[in-house]
Amino acid sequence: MSKLYLQSTVKVSANNYTSKICNDILSLLNTSFHSLPDENKARISYFVSELRLLCSNYLDDIKIDLVCTHGDFQPGNILCSKDDFWIIDWEYSAQRSIFYDALVFDLECRFPPGLSARLDKKINEMSNINTYLGWTGGALSEKNKYYFPIFFIEDLLLRMNEVSVQLIHAKSDALSLYLDELPAIQTILKNNMEKDISTNCISF
Fold it and tell me: Can you give the residue range of the structural domain that contains 41?
């Protein structure tokens, strides 16, 4: 995967990128989720608005790495034999931030219950990890933890795209466990970004 990332890396404005993803989420919410309960629509809208504000306040002039990602990088899509391995199901492949696949895998994002707790635990461990997700060719550290809110904006869009097709009528059922985690995730991300800015941990 690191070779794929290296070959496809482009640098973009973090603010411009996150703003585009947020707009895509809200557009999808308005066009393909009419049956979603108002409570869930409000939860998505609030999460997006808060993370957009968070990024606009703290990511000014920051460039991030976008790469070609798998999109669903989890154990079920990795096949192994004695001598080789294969990564399957590339249907959600797209250009995303460099740590997207790695965070999907490491935070076990395809299993939403407890996701916010796993995020909080990982962020609290960051000061003791020097090469976290180093297999990507980069490293997620105290200096660039802003990749976490970017990741969750991207991940929400992917999940909504997954269930936006007309054949899936019970969109609330498909998203409910994930949406239940969003308020706690938003609080964790906001608190950590504000703490890092106040202690000058984030590198600009």
Answer: 2-197
